[in-house]
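Weekly puzzle thread! Below is a chain. First person to post its structure in token form gets bragging rights.
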Amino acid sequence: MITRSLCMLILYVLYVDFSVRAHEDRVPAASSFAESLPEFTLRAPDDVEHTRKDFIGKGVVMICTAPTVAHGEDQREWVERLKKGGWNKDGPALVLLEDMTQSWFKGKAIERMKEEYKPGEAPLLLLDHKAELRKALEGRRKNALLDKTVVLVFNCEGELVYIETKAPEKADMEKLCDAIQRLCVSPLDQLPPLQK
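Winning reply:
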């Protein structure tokens, strides 16, 4: 009886250890990302061009994602949770960055985005056709954002101050919303850049 219980305990510990390591391998570390918002020029579905300069002085909450069915659910959930939580239209920009290289049906995805996109309403949708901004945001670790939905928060100077890699329902919304709220206050009260 004791031997069976001991074997079960060992198997359970090994399972938990393996599960934690497998999860850690999929979740990028803070050092995986660029320290600041890179220079970029991207277009929204209405063909309006946007650059890094649009967000300096304002801050940005950027949901980095792919136009796939699985990520679409996370996108909608993130936008809904952020609008209910710490984001408001007078604060930092709320941006949905779509890495179009991850779409199997790029033409259909763009067509649908053009139909559903509402210029002037949050979130601002930016189409990253060649994954240039996604790759620049990844910093030193290639593919840290590939096939993931990650929320990056940049302060008014364009410095990365918060990263959320968990799914919306598992995210620490209180910490995320606090980071967003602190973007809307004086520079002395803002979060410092993330330390690597």
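Puzzle host: Confirmed. Bonus trivia for everyone else. Helices lie at 2-26, 69-84, 106-116, 132-137, 173-181.
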